[in-house]
From TrEMBL:
InterPro entries: ThiF/MoeB/HesA (IPR045886), ThiF_NAD_FAD-bd (IPR000594), Ubiquitin-activating_enz (IPR035985)
Organism expressing this protein natively: Deinococcus hohokamensis
A Pfam family this chain is assigned to: ThiF
Highest taxon, organism lineage: Bacteria
Protein name listed in UniProt: HesA/MoeB/ThiF family protein
Domain THIF-type NAD/FAD binding fold: 9-235
Length: 242
């Protein structure tokens, strides 16, 4: 690493587990695909860039809306109507010029395989299960890990899926899942969940700690209670942790 990089990452290099594992160099050599640059994806994008990820692809086909601003802290009033991916990429470039960042539009069947294949890690920060399943299937086919999170109303979930246990194994039928547009969401909640997704991404890419593989972290914003649930593949069409 260059001297400016050493100064930039000095505080996390003081963490023994991070330094002793050579995690900073692994992160610097790694690439991630973040799908969704909203309430969940925003904290992931900023914190991976700040931590020193080598290459970042931001995929989002939406534009900034006024109703996003209470929770999507990447954006300001002047960004309304602009591409989320482009604004997020500019924020990354302004934060850390050592990160190579590129953008993609909406993830669809025609581009998902190529996007997933080009990344070491996929972060699913989307808000609908159609795209979530599309990403899950592409990750399973490519043998890639996927950091997954969800926030709606007053509750949030985070997990790390992989070839052994994927999204479809845990949520085989999510037809009743409500988006933020339907269920609403308290502004700080997606930022909290997104920050934990960023932390899980750093653990996976840096090779430190125990990522949430095979486990689901849940949070209730009204009570402040959290718990971690062991997962197993669903066999009867219902979620395997219930």
């Amino acid at each position: 690493m260059s001297r400016p990089e050493l100064r930039r990452y000095a505080r996390q290099l003081l963490v023994p587990e991070w330094l002793d594992a050579g995690a900073q160099e692994r992160l610097r050599a790694a690439s991630a695909l973040v799908v969704g640059a909203g309430g969940l994806g925003g904290p992931v994008i900023v914190q991976l860039a700040g931590a020193g990820l080598g290459r970042l692809t931001v995929a989002d086909g939406d534009t900034v809306a006024l109703s996003n601003l209470h929770r999507q802290t990447l954006y300001s009033l002047s960004d309304v109507g602009r591409s989320k991916a482009e604004v997020a990429a500019a924020r990354v470039q302004g934060l850390n010029p050592h990160v190579v960042v590129q953008t993609a539009g909406q993830v669809v069947a025609g581009n998902v395989a190529a996007l997933v294949a080009a990344a070491d890690l996929v972060v699913d920060a989307t808000d609908n299960f159609e795209t979530r399943y599309l990403l899950a299937d592409a990750c399973a086919a490519a043998g890639k890990s996927c950091v997954w999170g969800a926030a709606s109303g007053t509750s949030g979930l985070v997990s790390v899926f992989g070839p052994e246990l994927g999204l479809r194994d845990v949520f085989p039928d999510a037809q009743d899942e409500l988006s933020c547009d339907e269920a609403g969401v308290l502004g700080p909640l997606p930022n909290l969940i997104g920050s934990l997704m960023a932390l899980e991404s750093l653990k996976v890419l840096g090779g430190v700690g125990e990522p949430l593989r095979g486990r689901l972290w849940t949070f209730d914003a009204l009570t402040g209670r959290s718990r971690t649930i062991e997962l197993r593949p669903a066999r009867d069409g219902s979620s395997s942790f219930l």
